[in-house]
Write a structure and sequence with these properties.
Elements (H helix, E strand, L loop, with lengths): L1 E4 L5 E4 L6 H21 L9 H12 L9 E2 H11 L5 H12 L9 E4 L17 E4 L1 H7 L9 E3 L6 E3 L8 H5 L1 E4 L4 E4 L4 H13 L5 H4 L13 E3 L1 H10 L1 E7 L2 E5 L3 E5 L8 H13 L6 E6 L7 E5 L5 H11 L3 E7 L1 E4 L2 E4 L2 H42 L1 H10 L3 H11 L4 H9 L7 H25 L2 H19 L6 E3 L16 E7 L3 E5 L6 E2 L6 E2 L9 E8 L3 E6 L3 E6 L13 E2 L12 E7 L9 E7 L3 E6 L11 E2 L9 E8 L3 E6 L3 E6 L5 E2 L6 E2 L9 E7 L7 E6 L3 E6 L13 E2 L10 E7 L5 E6 L3 E6 L13 E2 L9 E6 L1
Helix pairs in contact: 2-3, 7-12, 7-17, 12-15, 12-16, 12-17, 13-14, 14-15
Length: about 800
């Protein structure tokens, strides 16, 4: 049996009570959990403080560490808090106090620190023996009127002192500075806000008791973080404030500077992000080659944030910035979890509930303060009334006192003969002779009159809840005037959304180059300088001797590209998925991107129009080497498998040559190697399924083949057909010289071919707005020429020299834009 020691020193046996271990564990853990929830991790909704924060401010106030006082060592403050109110580790108190002094942690710091109190880079504060602290000016508002018994107190941990259960909280601290806490089984995360906005919302709520959270959000636009930043989506913000839970996307601010060196300058970061860690993450991404384009990274921050990212020439600043948003802490989602203690019980609160709780608290504080002031005024008026009455009968009173045996007897006689109260009699006996002077007598009468007026006004105030709420409103407005400052965090109504790959890549003009050997690359159009016709061009890429360029496509980086092969299959990929290279680089093998067969080669690459999938007016037409034509609905290519789809069934010995999008009413021109052409309506070919073989579009000779296919837009009268021979001769011919025929004809002549010109190698359609043509030879030489420099000639002519070719070289392809 266990023994208990009695007060007299004797020991008695205590009974042992058997308890289930399961029950004991459950009860003990619940006790521990509630202790953490109510005594450590969660703030009170009224003053927005956790117990350790409240004890720090109260202890500083008790030792006179107001804003106007001299600094004292942090160790002295911590020691005072530990010894009197908070019997835990000193690191817990000091860590909390340093955070209360950090301008990057608190929107309105409650402690004014001197020395190293840590940094946004995660640097730890100096030891408490080196730093000094006192209350910030706004912290004084948190404790204002506490001496007037405005809040309840409770014994401290050893019962030697009393400490406040909650502070008077002259400022709405829970909303101003927010909070972060992790308890047992629950947590809280409330963002900081702007005082001007919170004050306006409180005053509006006092005046409009039927207002809703949505009404209050007309004043409170959203969180206002200490280091600024940007928050997105008004709907997400409204949901978070209405329910107490929700996620809001937050980004740091960054500016793209187009100086001599393209630069990204980050001037703010999301709340609670470690700047040094973020910069290390950016450096890691560069080192791991997961992000291209960054040349240098510098932290130029002082009191303000300034992170400078220098970019390489030719890089895309917006692409780099979007990648940083997606893969670093430059963008985060702030998760609202507005949990606080209401009457000691944790609750998830809406914005309106928090404001109502604060208003209710301030109403109680003003009420108790008024009651205290009233009691004090009544006590003083009671004394003054006794002094005035004494002065009216001063001769009798002096005589009575002189005749009394001692002070006690005089005190009793005053109460008996003049009906003075005990306190009045005491005040009369303690009255100095100087009070007999005329001016002193007048001062007592004036003070009594003043106190009586004050008592009347205080009673009127206590008798009117509306007047008390008006006092709360006035004091909040005074706070706004005294401490209000501009908003730091920008609010964007629209949704930031998830950053996709497309968001990180600019949608701009780009050139795709594809070689017979299967090498592909994407190039900036500015790589090709314009030349006069007849120039020798510039080398586009380093190709093997037997390799040459076969396809040259102009498209946007966000376009979907359809890759058609000689075997009649189609594959699909984004333009930006093709690696970018300089003009003279080789590119990458197409086998890295498409699952082509060993005997399969790409013959045409077509950018898919943005509206093609959802439009019945747009179809895709395919032309084979032997002149077979087939038309398929564009929607058939909306979803192309990774290993491709069958686009056309080919006849024996035939291959797919060209693919192009057509609209209802368009016409099509086909050009052959031997200089023949045919012009027919797209309606002459009915729409078929993907597996169909097609119909004959043009009759061609046994040794002839299709070298070009173009679409003439409906109603186009000013277009011109361009053809180019293998030796570099070319010309423009008006579309009006090509009469519209029925399909399946032999066509008409489009160029006069001679041994000097050789056979035709390429053709294209020139429409209004096009300005240049790019021709490429089999050895990779490119010439970019203005269309104004190319002669317009009839169908029966051979054309003029557009490009001088070196010995053994021939034209491979051309493209116009």
């Amino acid at each position: 049996m266990a023994k208990n020691k009695q007060k007299d020193g004797t020991e008695v046996e205590a009974p042992v009570v058997p308890v289930s271990i399961t029950q004991e564990m459950r009860e003990s853990y619940l006790d521990y959990a509630m202790s953490v929830i109510t005594g450590r991790a969660l703030p009170d909704v009224r003053d927005g403080l956790k117990p350790v924060q409240r004890r720090i401010l109260y202890a500083m106030n008790e030792i006179g560490l107001s804003y106007s006082a001299k600094f004292r060592k942090s160790a002295a403050v911590v020691g005072d808090v530990l010894g009197k109110y908070h019997p835990h580790g000193d690191s817990a108190v000091y860590d909390t106090m340093t955070k209360m002094a950090q301008t990057f942690s608190y929107r309105y710091p409650l402690v004014f620190g001197q020395g190293n109190f840590g940094s946004i880079d995660g640097d730890a504060p100096a030891a408490m023996r080196y730093t000094e602290a006192k209350m910030a000016r706004i912290a004084g508002e948190m404790l204002r009127d506490i001496e007037k018994k405005t809040v309840n107190t409770a014994p401290n941990y050893d019962g030697t002192k009393q400490e406040p259960i909650v502070l008077p909280a002259g400022v709405p601290n829970l909303l101003l500075n927010g909070t972060l806490g992790i308890a047992v089984g629950m947590a809280t995360n409330i963002p900081p806000h702007n005082l001007n906005e919170v004050a306006d919302a409180i005053t509006y709520r006092i005046d409009n008791e039927k207002s809703t959270t949505e009404d209050l959000l007309e004043f409170i636009k959203g969180p206002d973080f200490p280091m600024g930043g940007i928050i997105f989506n008004k709907k997400d913000i409204q949901h978070a404030y209405a329910s107490g839970r929700g996620g809001v996307v937050c980004r740091g601010e960054a500016e793209i500077l187009d100086d001599k060196v393209p630069t990204i300058v980050i001037t703010s970061i999301p709340f609670r992000v470690n700047k040094a860690t973020m910069i290390e993450r950016i450096a890691d991404l560069v080192r791991e080659k997961k992000i291209d384009g960054i040349k240098a990274l510098r932290d130029e921050s002082t009191s303000d944030i300034r992170v400078v990212i220098e970019l390489k020439t030719g890089s895309y600043p917006q692409k780099v910035l979007n990648y940083l948003y997606k893969h670093t802490d430059l963008e985060q989602t702030y998760h609202f979890n507005m949990v606080a203690l209401v009457d000691g019980v944790p609750q998830t609160l809406s914005l309106k509930s928090i404001i109502d709780a604060y208003i209710g608290h301030r109403v109680e504080i003003v009420t108790r303060r008024t009651q205290f002031d009233l009691q004090k005024a009544e006590d003083r008026a009671h004394i003054l009334a006794g002094l005035k009455m004494a002065l009216d009968h001063i001769d009798k009173i002096i005589k009575l006192i002189k005749a009394s045996k001692d002070a006690s007897a005089a005190h009793a006689k005053l109460m008996q003969e003049f009906k003075f109260s005990e306190r009045q009699a005491t005040a009369i006996l303690e009255m100095r002779l100087q009070k007999l002077a005329g001016l002193e007598r007048k001062a007592i009468e004036d003070e009594l009159k003043e106190k009586l007026a004050l008592i009347k006004s205080l009673k009127a105030l206590l008798g009117s809840p509306k007047k008390i709420r008006a006092v709360v409103k006035t004091e909040v407005e005074e706070l706004k005037e005294k401490y209000g400052d501009p908003r730091r965090t920008k609010v964007v109504k629209g949704r930031a959304g998830e950053i996709t790959t497309e968001d990180m890549i600019p949608d701009e003009d780009s050139i795709l180059v594809y070689t017979k050997g299967g090498y592909i690359k994407r190039t900036n159009p500015d790589e090709y300088r314009a030349q006069k016709r007849g120039g020798i061009g510039v080398v586009d890429l380093n190709t093997k001797e037997e390799d040459f360029i076969t396809i040259f496509v102009s498209a946007r980086t966000h376009d979907d590209l359809l890759f058609f092969t000689d075997l009649g299959k189609v594959y699909k990929m984004k333009m930006y998925d093709i690696p970018e290279g300089r003009r003279a680089t080789k590119g990458k093998s197409i086998m890295n991107f498409l699952q082509l067969g060993s005997d399969e080669r790409v013959t045409s690459i077509v950018p898919m129009p943005k509206l093609a999938i959802n439009s019945d007016d747009i179809s895709l037409m395919m032309i084979t080497k032997r002149g077979v034509a087939k038309k398929v609905a564009a929607a058939s290519f909306a979803d192309v498998r990774r290993n491709g789809l069958i686009a056309i069934t080919l006849g024996k010995g035939d291959t797919l040559h060209s693919s192009l999008f057509v609209r209802k009413g368009d016409t099509v021109i086909l050009v052959t190697k031997d200089g023949q052409s045919i012009h027919f309506k797209d309606a002459d070919i009915r729409q078929m399924g993907r597996s169909a073989a097609g119909v004959r579009g043009m009759k061609i000779g046994e040794k002839d083949k299709i070298v070009g296919a173009s679409v003439v837009p409906k109603g186009e009268k000013e277009a011109k057909v361009m053809v180019m021979s293998e030796t570099g001769y070319g010309k423009l011919t008006p579309i009006t010289e090509y009469k519209v025929q029925k399909r399946d004809g032999s066509g008409i002549k489009t160029a006069k071919l001679t041994p000097k010109t050789g056979v035709l190698m390429a053709s294209g359609l020139i429409t209004q707005g096009m300005q240049e043509v790019v021709a490429i030879s089999r050895k990779g030489v490119v010439i970019r020429t203005s269309l104004e420099d190319i002669s317009t000639l009839g169908r029966q002519t051979q054309g003029v020299r557009i490009m001088k070719l070196r010995a053994g070289d021939k034209i491979a392809s051309l493209v116009t834009w």
